[in-house]
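hey so u asked for the seq, here:
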Amino acid sequence: MPNDLTRQLVLLTPPGRGAVATVLLEGPDARDAVQEVFQAASNRPLDDYAPEQLIYGRLGPPPGEEVVLHCRSAEQVEVHCHGGTAAVGRLEKIFAVRGFAAVDWQSWIPSQEPDPIAAAARLALADARTAQTAAILLDQYHGALRREFETIKLAICPHPSSLIPHPSLHQRLETLRTLIPLGRHLTSPWQVVLAGRPNVGKSCLLNALVGYGRAIVHEEPGTTRDAVTVTTALDGWPVELCDTAGLCESTCPVERAGVELARQKMQQSDLTVLVFDAAQSWTPVDQALDAAWPQALRVHNKCDLPRSSATRPSGLSVSALTGQGIEVLAQTIAKRLVPHPPPPGAAVPFTEAHFRQIEEWERL
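ran it, structure tokens below
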């Protein structure tokens, strides 16, 4: 809650056009301030309504803004109005003259949560891309990471009644450290790059993974000149797939720029998927490319076509055209990104402050 001298107006719903916007008025005598400019459809005062009862009416100078009120308490009133910036802007003007300062929800949430980890989780939940990452953040909001941090603090500076052995401390810190890569991607997708020589089917493979035609495909080599990205979910994890220009030597400035961009994307990615053409012979160029990226996931596309008899390294066999092996590929990418998903209720660090704290404890 705000201090006794603060009145705040907080927009709780995303800004912009929408069906309904929700504005919270919070502070001393907030309900009385609303009563001054609100006319209930029943013509009854707010004090006549039971707590938590929804109240329909108009707010502001006639004809007034159509709203539904939810009076949480004498100090908190939710105003539900038409979505969009115009209606919210009118409410801000009406209550600005009554001492309500507009505050963004990101600044407001920490004042509602005495636990900073819970406050951070509540903020992060707004940016969770999948139900799976949201569930992990919800566990942290309910105290999973806070309890683990408290246990570690006890192990470092044990209370006389503490029975936690020192080896437990090392194991707990190691577990948290291994979860840092996952924590970094609870609100932002992993970067996965599809790379390979021209015309191996990278664009078609991207389309098959996301289930629709995001990238342009053509039988002519070199169709993709720029990086094409699309965000999706693989096995419940948010992933940004990037289709890149074919890796080859070229005298064309545009193609050279595309190849250089492709290599930059590969270096910056969390995972590179190297795509080869299963219907073509394995060449020294393929071998050099494969050797240059030893951590990449090797995929042999076009397995629906007659396979070349030449020996080639093992890898996933897929057909972007028929869909064969695509589900296995998606699962394999997810497994490479998150090899050991945490069980429900596990503590997972998810902010830079958490990562630094773990590093500090490891140095003790």
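The chain is about 35% helix and 20% strand. The radius of gyration is 28 Å.
lmk if thats what u needed
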